[in-house]
Amino acid sequence: MEPSDADLVRQCLQGDNVGFDLLVKRYQKQVYGLCYRMLGDADEAADAAQESFVKAYNALAGFRLDAKFLTWMFRIANNTCIDMSRQRKSRQTVSLDDMAGEPSVPDSPDGPEETVLRGESDRLVQEAVSRLPEKYRTALVMFHFSGMSIRDISKAIGRPEGTVKSDLHIAREMLRQKLEGVVADL
Amino acid sequence: MNCTKAREILNSLIDGEEHTRAAEAREHTRQCAACREWNAGMERTLQLMEASPDVPPELDVAAAVMARLPERHPASVTRPEGRRFSKRVLVWVGAGWLIGVTALIVAGFGLWNLLPEESMAGAVVRTYGSVQTAGLLLESVLTGSWTLIAAVRSIVTGVGAAAGGLGLLMIQLLVFDTAVLLVITVMWRRRRAAAGVHSILA
């Protein structure tokens, strides 16, 4: 039987880092996925995921064992991404109109043709997501890409469920408008 | 139903919620060209998000993360197994000290009340032979004795709590004793004042 998240946290706090290693392996894809959607860049997302886990390790003593580890991790990852996003804001420009750029997109296990098509649509979606204001991006990414419930998002970002819902609706509407026309032919 | 309401309901359905007016909203969307277009755009957007590739399968940040961590978690060094003091325990110890000190103050106040007044009350008995004053003297001695016993008990319990005996029971005992001491002292002084002992002595 696999040890629970709480068991692994306890193991780590007792001085055995193997517990944390297992937690990282258990959740790295979800955390990376959130970071990738928040930042829109595979390399930056890997850095953000790494940084998030290190922050989590340092804050582990404050983790409530009855809470969901992944929700707590998402909160840390989201804050890390927002910090990174703000730091690079001045030097990065993303434009839906500028299709010539080649942003870093995660590799896909599909064949070359599918990869091109999926890569293209994903790039469009990702660019549109990247241009959403922070709070709307967070709600959208956590709900649609990380598969979190509205309740868990509310816990992760410390905002009321009603606000999360409202942010999510606005985010979807903004995304729809950004993708309108651009994706009609795909 | 207007377009705003219909879209609000459709958004709730996308969130996975149920809505009593869902059928009405769908019917509105079928009949309203603007909402049909809005709904088609929203569905395309959702499809694109769902079709978006997931993370790279070879992703592994574990090694890089573990390389940045110390050999042992700092909490395990500062809080060795078997000798941990949780926050709750520290709060109890703090409360124990606080109540113990309060008990000492109250006991001191009780003693201060007891000693000089008892001797003065004795003088009053000798001088005036008043039955009322003699009653007060007896009451003073009894109350003072009880005050002393309760104070000693409070101090012992307070020291026990502070030294690590801890526990809700000890704290409750301290609170009870302290409250009794306060009540007795206040009542005692009031009764004395009401009986005019001070004015007799003056």
Strand and helix map with partners:
The complex is a heterodimer of chains A (186) and B (202).
Chain A: H1 5-13, H2 18-39, H3 42-58, H4 69-89, H5 112-130, H6 134-145, H7 150-157, H8 161-179
Helix pairs in contact in A: 1-2, 2-3, 2-4, 2-6, 3-4, 4-7, 6-8, 7-8
Chain B: H1 3-14, H2 22-31, H3 33-51, H4 62-67, H5 74-78, H6 87-128, H7 131-163, H8 168-195, H9 197-201
Helix pairs in contact in B: 1-2, 1-3, 2-3, 6-7, 6-8, 7-8
Structural overview:
- The complex is a heterodimer of chains A (186) and B (202).
- Chain A starts with a helix and ends in a 7-residue tail after the last helix.
- In chain A, helix 1 crosses helix 2 (18-39), helix 3 (42-58) crosses helix 4 and helix 7 (150-157) crosses helix 8.
- In chain A, 68% of the residues lie in helices and 0% in strands.
- Chain A has 186 residues and is mainly α.
- Chain B has 202 residues and is mainly alpha-helical.
- Chain B has two domains: 3-51, no CATH class; 87-201.
- Chain B is 79% helix and 0% strand.
- Chain B has nine helices and no strands.
- In chain B, helix 6 packs parallel to helix 8 (168-195).
- Chain B is elongated, with a radius of gyration of 38 Å.
- The N and C termini of chain B lie far apart (89 Å).
- Mean pLDDT of chain B is 71; it is low at 198-202.
- Chains A and B meet through helix 2, helix 3, helix 5, helix 6 and helix 8 of A and helix 1, helix 3, helix 4 and helix 5 of B.
Keywords, separated by commas or semicolons:
heterodimer, A: 186 residues, Rna Polymerase Sigma Factor, Chain: A, 8 helices, B: 202 residues, mainly alpha, elongated, disordered C terminus
Q: How confident overall, as mean pLDDT of chain B?
A: 71
Q: Helicity of chain B, in percent?
A: over 70%
Tell me what the CATH architecture of chain A is: Orthogonal Bundle
Output the CATH class name of chain A. Answer: Mainly Alpha
The CATH H-level superfamily of chain A is RNA polymerase sigma factor, region 2, helix turn helix motif
Radius of gyration of chain B from the CA trace?
38 Å
- The H/E string of chain B reads HHHHHHHHH
Count of individual helical segments of chain B: 9
Strand content of chain B: under 5%
The coarse overall form of chain A would be globular
